[in-house]
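REVIEWER CHECKLIST
Item 1: Sequence provided? yes
Item 2: Single chain? yes
Item 3: Sequence as submitted:
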Amino acid sequence: MSTNQQEAPLWQALYDCAQSSQVAFHTPGHKRGRGLPAAILQHLGSFLGSVDLPELPELDNLFAPEAAILEAQVLAAQLFGAEQTWFLTNGSTCGILAALLAIGGPGDQIIVPRNLHTSVISGLVLCGAVPIFVQPALDQQLNLAHSLSVQDIQRAFEIYPQAKAIFLIHPTYEGICGDISAIATFAHDHGIPLIVDEAHGPHFAFNPQFPQSALAAGADLTIQSTHKMLGALTQAAMLHVQGHLVDRQRLSQTLQLVQSTSPNYLLLASLDAARHQLAHAGFEIMQQVLVLADKAHTQLQCLPNYHQWNPIGNTPGCIALDQTRLTIPTYPFGAQGYDLDQMLIDSYQISAELITPDHLTFLITLGNTDADIDQLLLALQDLYQPHLQPYPHSYPKAKPPISLPVLSPREAYWHPSEAIPIMESVGRVSTESICPYPPGIPTLLPGERIQQQDLDWLLHLQQEGGVITGGSDLSFNTLKVVRE
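Item 4: Structure as written out by the authors:
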């Protein structure tokens, strides 16, 4: 058995410290669980507090690792196929922020997909880089974005050859994967790095039936939410690097800008434990996940007149689909997405991952069971109405294929602004990032000119039960725009 399989050094160090009889005169204030609130002690017990420890010498230092954390990160790099790995305690968000701060500065141009996560905009505000927005192809059935194709990237680079990096999403929220290997080759042919938001794809490396992982495809830097699809605790993530196009010393420095100097060691240790779990039986675990996913997809196809969504081959931006995502159109189940989701919760105790007016997406992971799949299939069979047809929608028009914002996100964020009624904001330049959540893909971005169709779409989503986030006015009656 390899060293990678045998050891979980950080988790072991944390556990050993928790068993120590040392008298604590250091943080945290609850002193190894003795001072935790009664409600926590009653429901979770004191062990939680005993492993909630600070940067003790035995536990190493996240920003200057030399012992348990360093060993755990080296083992993670070996397992995931990276040359170097950093553990993150503030989710993929802090990895994205650090990556953008490491590769871009004020005025630098970076090619990004328009269906980016809102954390990318935050990173651009911090670093001052200018996004070259590239609009991916849109699925006309479910109104969702595909991945960017290498042709999309080539066209953007022809117009803006000074771009310093390419930023991609792999996979999308619904599991769509583009030809990331071809894009990595294009990036390297032009001497620029490929940065990949792989928040939803950390499992790809553990079974050949999954789409190719970003690292295997040649990405220079990839950020993974280890908690989303694997066994780490929420907010626990990893950042992986390979090659020479990303300055690793600068990356270490930027990570210190966006992470707490008091990291949660439970999160760090959970990353090590999740790595150990996969090193020991990753293929077998993911094979079982695939069995569950195949059961869900196969039995759903047995519904009369049911047309399962499958975008592979329809556009250059979709060459593979992550089977762990079960995406269903909502119309055959007699309700729009938000209503259908509530029905599933109220009547079947089932919660979806992604809810939109047109589709729901369910994630099948190593934590699901055969009984879970049976319960989901039973619910969908009960609600299915084969005679129903798609209802008409008025979707907003796609954004321009390639565009620059009027102002960089950083310029717009710091520009003098004023709050005005939303219907008076058409044609003005937004200083806010406004998005329905989940999945956190902004409809309005700081620095972009506001279009009527965007406001209509946001109001429609709000009326249907969606939550509009990002604005200073939580009721979404006003928007902040650049003061003229």
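Item 5: Key structural point noted by reviewer: The chain has a mean pLDDT of 93.
Item 6: Recommendation: ____
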